[in-house]
């Protein structure tokens, strides 16, 4: 069974839409195997936004993203399901909220553009992070969760429909 990491960023908590976002994942049958609320340390944010981000977008962008992620509380979620990385990425929408389609989380709840964020010198507040690949998900889950913080459970209704 595939797992993915979701981070509900400080702007999602500030706006009070955590429950609405969580319910979307529950409605598609994603199983929650880990969840916690915390204020990220700079060290943890740097492990999350790796040097790879700096190579792709520049060190300044990486620093702005780290500053955004550490600006308030986040909710870290580990979800499990069939092809869950791809399913969640579709649900989340484009990284730039103004480009995200209606019906996606970013398309329904955010509208900031890269241009605006660049003009203000801030990381883009786009509500949510979702792992891009199953390999990335494994690395990211390890940043935010200790193995003992992940719960293996199988709701009764899935015992008859899903095979591990």
Plain-language structure description:
The chain is an alpha+beta fold and 164 residues long. The chain has a single domain (2-147), classed as Alpha-Beta Plaits (2-Layer Sandwich), CATH 3.30.70. It has 9 helices and 4 strands. It has helices at 10-15, 18-27, 42-48, 51-57, 59-69, 84-92, 105-109, 114-120, 134-144; strands at 2-8, 31-39, 73-81, 128-130. Strands 2-3-1-4 form a 4-stranded antiparallel β-sheet. The mean pLDDT is 91.
The level 1 CATH classification is Alpha Beta
The number of distinct structural domains comes to 1
Molecular shape = globular
**Biggest beta sheet summary:** 4 strands, antiparallel
Helical fraction: 40-55%
Output the number of helix runs: 9
State mean pLDDT (0 to 100 scale). 91
The first-to-last residue Cα distance is 6 Å
CATH superfamily: Nucleoside diphosphate kinase-like domain
CA radius of gyration is 16 Å
CATH topology: Alpha-Beta Plaits
Which regions have little confidence, pLDDT < 50, spanning 5+ residues?
none
The count of DSSP E runs of length 2 or more, i.e. the number of strands, is 4
Beta-strand portion reads 15-25%
Q: What order do the helices and strands follow? A: EHHEHHHEHHHEH
Structural class: alpha+beta
Describe this protein with a few key phrases.
9 helices, Alpha-Beta Plaits, four-stranded antiparallel sheet, 164 residues, alpha+beta
Short description:
This protein is 45% helix and 17% strand. It is an alpha+beta fold and 164 residues long. 33% of the residues are buried.
């Amino acid at each position: 069974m595939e797992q993915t990491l979701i981070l509900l960023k400080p702007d999602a908590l500030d706006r009070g839409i955590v429950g609405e976002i969580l319910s979307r994942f529950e409605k598609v049958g994603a199983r929650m195997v880990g969840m916690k609320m915390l204020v990220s340390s700079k060290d943890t944010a740097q492990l999350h936004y790796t040097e790879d981000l700096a190579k792709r977008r520049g060190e300044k962008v990486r620093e702005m993203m780290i500053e955004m992620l550490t600006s308030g509380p986040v909710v870290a979620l580990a979800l499990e399901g069939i092809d869950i990385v791809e399913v969640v990425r579709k649900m989340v929408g484009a990284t730039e909220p103004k480009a995200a389609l209606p019906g996606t989380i970013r398309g329904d709840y955010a509208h900031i553009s890269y241009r605006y964020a660049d003009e203000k010198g801030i990381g883009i507040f786009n509500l949510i992070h979702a792992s891009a690949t199953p390999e990335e998900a494994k690395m990211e889950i390890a940043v935010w969760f200790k193995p003992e913080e992940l719960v293996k459970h199988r709701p009764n209704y899935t015992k008859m429909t899903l095979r591990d």
